[in-house]
Amino acid sequence: MTQPRVSYLSLGCPKALVDSEHIVTELVERGYDVVAADDDAAVVVINTCGFIDAAKDESFDAIEQALGQGREVVVTGCLGADSEALLAKYPGLKHVSGPQDVMPVINAVQTYIPQQDLPGDEEEATHLPGEARARGQGTRLTPAHYAYLKISEGCNHTCSFCIIPTMRGRLVSRNIGDVLREAEGLAEQGVREVMVIAQDLSAYGADIKYANGSYGGVELPSRLEPLCRQLGQMLPWVRLHYVYPYPNVDGLIPLMADGLLLPYLDIPLQHAAPRILKLMRRPAAAERTLERIHRWREMCPELCIRSTFIVGFPGETDEDVGVLLDFLEAAKLDRVGCFTYSPVEGAAANALAEPVSEGEKLDRQERVYEVQGEISRVRLDRFTGQRLRVLIDEVDSAGAIARSMFDAPDIDGVVHVDSDPALRAGDFAWVRVKSHDHHDLYASYTGSGLNL
Question: Which distant-in-sequence residues (6+ apart) come within 8 Å of 101 by Cβ?
């Protein structure tokens, strides 16, 4: 019998991608052939993003295109958190549900493409990973050699520019035993790199009072440090994303210095001016963050730090931007993303006075990138002439696209490696860096042995 086909489109952040992996896993286990969104399957599932206007527009465009093709459209994800508003805008939608809602999506698909004699029990799937996902054996939407490992959902912060707690709820941490069993399954599949993700990685376990979990016959607390120590013993590369600069992060730096974690932190600082941070309701002060960054680099000189910032926040002045630029000069961050402030429907910041014009926002963004571009270039200077271990992502006739331990997929720079017949996607390799620009390294292959 021909498998019924369902198109799937996943938009937004890695956390949404993990949600998509849960949904696709359940569809595949029920006998559906899940295909790309541009396929002509009669039903299309769209996992939407609703964080900023640009992300909303991308989701709206995808919905309108699918409806215009006369397809049955099932919507999930962050935009679906306000189902009434979305159905009012697009009454032709067949189903709308919020993020992490696996079974409502499955049930909607089955309504329009019935599948008889389904394997398994529908009640087993929840908003947390099902049994296959918990073993690391579900369908993944990343290349075979890396994966995202989500350890908690939601957020307890009340940042004035953000509505993530409204869309995804408050913090819900997974038990450490469940996380480690999923990671073990990923390692058994040959995954080389795991990106540990959460909305607020530093808060992991707080909501469940750091409850013990069992793994390998040992009881472990659901805390970030013991989790990372165990992960570092399972997988070659373990990378941390979305970390707040809290004191408990200090305990992770020795693990990086010892090679159990990649020396890499993704810390969304958002600004440096105290007045703006207060308006944003951000939980960390810039001066303490700067002190902590300097201390971390003393403990682990290789440490790479990436961050994101927002310019053009209501009430922001040139003086505030100057404080941010001074912070960048002092912090010497390796990678920086800078976004112009975008009002998010339902966010408290919308009520603030003194909005910044769009033109001024873009000017300030350009100033940030000009300053940070030179900082990033100088930071990359230290690699010229050095050997680096890289993970190969893609290979073609021109050479390979790889990443060092300082580069996360999709958001950081890459290492361009000269063509060599020994290069294989998913393998580790040693390269020697010849040159660089403001973002990427250019290198030649030197071998693949661990101790070259």
Answer: 76, 80, 127
